[in-house]
Amino acid sequence: MTQQNHHPIPQEAFDWYDEYAHGLISRRAFLDRLAGLSAAGFSMAVLLPALMPNYALAEQVSFNDEDITPTYEKFESPLGHGEGRGYLVRPSALEDTAPVVLVVHENRGLNPYVKDVARRAAKAGFIAFAPDALYPVGGYPGNDDEGRAMQRELDRAKVEQDFIAAARYLKALPGSNGQLGAVGFCFGGYVVNMLAAVMPDELNAGVPFYGTPAAEEIRGQVRGPLMVQLAELDERVNDTWPDYEQTLKANGADYVMHMYPGTNHGFHNDSTARYDPEAAELAWSRTIEFFNQHLTG
After folding, report:
1. Phi and psi (nearest 5°) for 15?
2. Considering Cα of 53, then 188, then 159, then 89, what sign does the dihedral take?
């Protein structure tokens, strides 16, 4: 079951949620702005449930689907927090080797939506691994607000090293064919762009969903292949694209960008009203096709 985006919510409410979710305004300021819409006939009872995630809606592939085998696995991260942990999902029928795909969560830890994305990747024939950046502090706490606060307190450089270590762990995992892909959302999209810059010879295909570029001093190392997925109404991230694209062109990088009309940041996430079913399905089918093209040859 997935939540549809047929709703009367004004665009500014989505924009305010994006600012709140990324630490640009406080929760109090976010709620105050929403309350200001009451004069226009929008009640908080309608707005808040639509904007905040409902993870009961975000399960397209059940954890006990017979086609997949999920486990939790730990990996060493000597330059990060020492040890990491993630959700590993293998295709049950795997008899030989398969490509591997790192699945990177948003800025709030490994929530149910991202775990479901890992299961979807496994259903498509990939060995998927979704690390939890919050593992060093106890793991995803069960709600996004607390998870976001926890992730914000972590050392950003160590978190990045944890994802680099996770990518290398996955690429060398028994059953891997040695071809590594990565897909990430929001902060996870940034991580994919960062991996493309710091390990261009090891990342064989990257798909950042509405993620900002890596630091300017390392962008010149990105060679791709990359499939950049952007939402038309996501001004914050889209403002970074022209400069990033110029760098990719200067690098001679292999890349393609898809812009999804009328969509908001987070349009692939089926747990909130930002979800756009048609765009999400198209973006995911393109992602799987891209990985098949670059990882299964």
Report:
1. -65, -40
2. positive
> What are the sequence ranges of the domains in the chain?
11-51, 62-295
Distances (CA, A) of 179 to 114, 118, 123, 256: 21, 17, 18, 20
Q: Which amino acid is at 175?
A: G
Nearest to 222 by CA among 206, 238, 239: 206
The edge-to-edge listing of strands for the beta sheet with 176-185 is 68-77, 82-91, 127-131, 98-104, 176-185, 205-209, 226-231, 255-260
CA-to-CA distance for 214 and 197, rounded, in angstroms?
Answer: 7
Cα–Cα distance between 282 and 207 in angstroms, integer? 14
pLDDT tens digit string along 192-246? 999 999 999 999 999 999 999 999 999 999 999 999 999 999 999 999 999 999 9
The domain over range 62-295 is classified in CATH as 3.30.565.10: no
The pLDDT, as a whole number, for residue 178 is 97
